[in-house]
Specification:
Helix content: 55-70%
Number of strands: 3
Shape: globular
Number of helices: 15
Protein name: DUF1403 family protein
Structural class: mainly alpha
Strand order of the largest sheet: 1-3-2
Radius of gyration: 21 Å
InterPro entries: DUF1403
Number of domains: 2
Organism: Mesorhizobium kowhaii
């Protein structure tokens, strides 16, 4: 039987569409998603209701299409990349991942290193139109970014499996199927998270995916089924209730974390937009736009109409006004963001 998430009860509906903040996520939803004892006492159908409500609350944030949404998705991508790096046995934290990508010369993506490539994989999820995420070209590119061996036949078969998963299957089956598809071809758990986030974005109708499951470090690995080229993932997956429950719980936790981060970035973006009229630099509006659409930018960013010295002075002014933060903690090669 395919279980589909139930809609939230009617008396909660108005709560889910209000502007995001820590206070506007209903208490019952936080308890149902985050309290370990509450989660342990629930069955998969109850968890499906919780996950559906959490995604509904997140959907309200996404559909507002705020100017800071690009920075929000990239910040979530950074969180996912940091967890991916740790699971791969690497030592790079969020700061080191930022450095690997931002301090590389523009276009020189071969120099970002393995950890930097992991961040590019999650940037690809956050910045590629959702409808293009599960094409063969996109799947092949993200596998390269994650350092996973592949062959063209496997990528083509996987793309076919994912097309079947994206149609006429419930959320539990879709999430379980994303991980089963990755495992069937011997790929790492991080890729299953990437696929699941892409499938959710397409199912809900978002223009861009929101990185969610990749940052769930507590989402445990499962046994990998042997690959069977003759069987389709969409028709051969058996929904393990415990696994489905774990995935739905992780999705609910991740959705609430994304909502909370959106509230934080909204406050920071409002501060930046509030001081923007006071900025006298000629290209200040371009800098503000980049800060709203990126996780971070370097002080040496090439921005038309602004010298390196002028850009550094502008950043100093923005920090002084409390509109942005310096994120590296260094006296040189400094990095700024909301």
């Amino acid at each position: 039987m395919i279980l589909r998430p139930k809609p939230a009860p009617r008396h909660h509906a108005t709560t889910l569409v209000r502007a995001p903040s820590m206070a506007t996520v209903p208490t019952w939803l936080r308890r149902a998603a985050l309290d370990a004892q509450t989660v342990a006492g629930q069955g998969i159908e109850d968890i499906a209701v919780t996950a559906g409500a959490a995604i509904g609350a997140l959907d309200a944030v996404v559909r507002r299409q705020e100017r800071w949404a690009g920075a929000w998705r990239q910040r979530l991508a950074l969180l996912a990349a940091a967890v991916t790096a740790r699971q791969a046995g690497r030592v790079e934290d969020e700061g080191a991942l930022r450095d690997a990508v931002l301090l590389t010369r523009p276009g020189d993506f071969l120099s970002v290193g393995p950890a930097g490539s992991m961040l590019l994989a999650w940037h690809r999820l956050a910045g590629t139109p959702a409808e293009k995420l599960l094409t063969e070209a996109s799947i092949g590119a993200v596998l390269d970014d994650l350092g996973l061996r592949r062959d063209d036949d496997a990528v083509g078969e996987l793309a076919d499996d994912l097309r079947q998963l994206s149609a006429n299957i419930g959320m539990v089956g879709m999430l379980t199927g994303a991980f089963t598809a990755a495992e069937r071809y011997g790929f790492a758990r991080a890729f299953g998270c990437w696929l699941a986030d892409a499938l959710v974005a397409q199912r809900v109708g978002w223009a861009y995916a929101v990185p969610l499951l990749g940052a769930e470090a507590a989402l445990g690995p499962s046994a990998r089924p042997r690959r069977s080229a003759a069987s389709s993932v969409a028709t051969s997956i058996g929904i393990d209730p415990e696994r489905g429950k774990d995935l739905l719980t992780a999705q609910a936790r991740a959705a609430l974390r994304a909502i909370d981060l959106s509230a934080e970035l909204e406050r920071r973006a409002d501060r930046l937009l509030g001081v923007a009229p006071k900025l006298r630099a000629k290209a200040a509006d371009l800098v503000v736009g980049k800060l709203l659409s990126h996780d971070a930018i370097v002080a040496s960013e090439q921005i038309a109409g602004m010298s390196d010295r002028g850009l550094r002075r502008l950043f100093d002014r923005l920090v002084e006004l409390g509109a942005v933060r310096e994120l590296s903690g260094r006296p040189t090669f400094r990095i700024y963001g909301l």
